Amino acid sequence: MNIQNLKLALQNEPKFRYKQAWQAVFKDLIGNWNENTTLPKNLREKLNQTVPLEIKAEVFGSKHSKAIKALLELEDGNKIETVLLQHNDDRNTVCVSSQVGCALGCKFCATGKMGFKRNLTASEIISQVLFFTRYLKQNHPNSRISNIVFMGMGEPFLNYDNVMEAVKIINDPECFNIGARHISISTSGIVEGINKFAKESLQLNLAISLHAPNDQLRAQLMPIDRKYPLEEVMEAVEKYVENKSRQVMFEYLMIENINDGEKEARELAELMRHPLYVVNLIRYNPTGVFKPSPASRMIKFKNTLLRAGVKTTQRQGFGTDINAACGQLAGKKKQNNE
Ligand code: SAH
Ligand code: SF4
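# iron/sulfur cluster complex -> structure
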């Protein structure tokens, strides 16, 4: 749903029409303006023409886990992916994309391989949430989306303004009404973005994709480390924590014999010497270059961190069978079409 077009279409209408339309889309979850009965018929027709509500998507379900992935087609034909993760405790997390592709080319990431196409608009980010809100209403009417993570395709802090505009709408009680504390943004470490984020008034969560505890290794995996070395990233995070007193999650992919040794675990523990820092160890979803760490190495790594007093969690291996990690489905699709 294009919010800009909605505003344009209603600019000469009485003010309450906008509120009615908004309610119809985000609360009644209509999929076509004709489903609404409060708006005049001629206006509904106009809206169907200029602000279509259909969201074109291909849905991929995972038989063995509770991850559903949708490949959404944008107006210009580009495709982005969105994932719904249904947790056992009734939480439903939607993982949204912020860009078509990504310019940062991390070696382990399928989105990185696609290269960068363009930023998503706030409306396109919102549409991903709207898609799964409708999906849940249809398939699990008693469930609602409880959490949003910006961990899909793209680097959110390189599309800062649109991401924050979308976040405000996601948080808005008149819209999705998802609490700021349930919205997380993951960055590869864009320092200017972290600094701006520290000044936001909403109590959002910050996650940093770390993946390596020193610049030498990190730059090999994540070229962006050359522009924003670890020291600068950690300094920005420290300032953020001083400002916000909020926990920060550091994501760490476990890649066999690359970043999962004792040496790296100890170095990482050194970096994590702050009570509000939490490490989240993530199973690497193979993208052709590396191998995931076997469970034994993962346990050893985790134990070293725990012994050093670092809060450490492990992300559930959601939907490996549908390639539920960052950018992998859209990447695959593209290859198949080539
Ligand atoms: N660009 C941002 C947000 C999108 S990536 C960032 O990098 O933080 C979101 C998460 O997916 C990151 O932590 C990223 O490392 C992870 N990811 C990327 N490729 C993956 C893979 N092959 N397996 C598992 N997780 C992956
Ligand atoms: Fe971009 Fe994040 Fe993938 Fe790196 S991990 S290429 S920053 S989407």
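# post-check
The pocket of iron/sulfur cluster (ligand 2) is lined by residues 102, 104-106, 109, 111-112, 154-155, 188, 209, 326-327 (CB under 6 Å).
The two ends are 30 Å apart (CA to CA).
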